[in-house]
Amino acid sequence: MILQHMFGVLSHPRDEWKLIREEHYSAIKCYGSHMVFLAAIPPLAAFIGTTQVGWSPVGNEFVKLTVGSALPIAIAFYFALLAGAGLMAWLIHWMEKTYGSRSSFDECMVLTAFTATPMFLAGLAALYPVLWFNVLVGMAGLAYTIYLLYTGVPVLMKIPEDRGFFFASSILMVGMILLVGMLAVTAILWGTVLTPRFT
After folding, report:
1. Contact criterion met (CB below 8 Å) for 69 and 196
2. Quick one: which of 139, 147, 128, 123 has its CA closest to 41?
3. DSSP 96
4. With a threshold of 0.85, does the pTM exceed it?
């Protein structure tokens, strides 16, 4: 059923959010049957793309990573995505009373998981790791994620549209801060513990 909701959110989100709200998914079920699989898409695609195709800023002179250096980076990336999604759900739950919502952590986890679906699917672009292509696909995924956020918050959090707009804007801001923090940690790890080696 979660897979059906995933495609429904991508094709007709306004109607699908209402169906998702009626399902009453637990955070554990959402995490175990949705997040663990979707979060694997970007690291797995990046691992294959950087070791088999090679990385290139403009589409020529591809440079490949060794399997031995790419594997720990991909594993760390996977667990960072899972941790980031869990932290985002917790932050949404922490903020929700400010906007008049009385939602459970389960509903906040469901919102996080389904809203992030386009971003995780956009990770498939890493199979062809050319910078301009990955940026374009990533921006499209981000744009649809933002759209899902603004349509999903009023429905799942059970608040009026105007409050939902402000709540979604706050979530977006917190999400951007969380993303920047993850990128900073990645840069530190990239230069110290998880140093890439090229073939």
Report:
1. yes
2. 123
3. G
4. yes
Decide: helix, strand or coil at residue 15: helix
Report the pLDDT value the prediction gives residue 107, as an integer from 0 to 100: 93
Residues 50-61: b if buried by 16+ CB within 10 A, e if exposed: bbeebbbeeeee
144 residue type, one letter: Y
Q: Looking at 101-160, list the stretches that DSSP marks H as alpha helix, in order from N- to C-terminal side.
A: 105-122, 131-156
User: CB under 8 Å to 197, separation ≥6 — which residues?
Assistant: 65, 66, 68, 69
The reported pLDDT for the residue numbered 37 is 92
Evaluated on CA atoms 26, 31, 37, 41, the torsion sign reads positive
Nearest-CA neighbor of 9 among 77, 62, 25, 21?
Answer: 21
Domain positions in the chain are 2-191
The low-confidence residues of the chain, meaning pLDDT below 70, are: 1-3, 58-59
Residue 8 pLDDT: 86
